Amino acid sequence: MGVGDPFGMAITHAHASGMGGVRTAGDLVARVQMSRGLKTEAAKKYVAEKLGVDVIDLVNEEVMTEVRRELDLGLVYALPGCARGLEAKRNIARTLEIPVNCLRRLGRGE
User: Fold this and answer.
1) Whether 92 contacts 28, CB under 8 Å
2) Within a 10 A sphere around the Cβ of 92, how many other Cβ atoms?
3) What local confidence, expressed as pLDDT, does residue 17 receive?
4) Three-state secondary-structure class, residue 109
5) Which of the residues in the chain have pLDDT under 50?
6) What's the CA gap between 69 and 77, in Å, rounded?
7) Which is deepest, 28, 30, 38, 60, by most CB within 10 Å?
8) Nearest to residue 15, comparing CAs of 59, 66, 64, 68?
9) Domain limits of the chain?
């Protein structure tokens, strides 16, 4: 039984952190990389298209905070009325049209 690329997740996490993680769109790009098997540049383009922003905006904290708030994709800090946890993951799955394993396992979405 194979386990896949043992460094794949570490590399994806490094890219996501370098893009600002949840503060920007690094987590979204990492999710797309892992679920669709895309290279970083292709994943950035895919995410930017789904979010309706330019690729350069994916690392802009001000732009992405507004986009994440509008699409209810979760933020670093909890705000009243904004999605967090599984609700944010469900919104991410719908917006990016990707599966999120924990949602499938819990029977809560895509």
Assistant:
1) yes
2) 24
3) 59
4) coil
5) 1-2
6) 11
7) 28
8) 59
9) 8-106
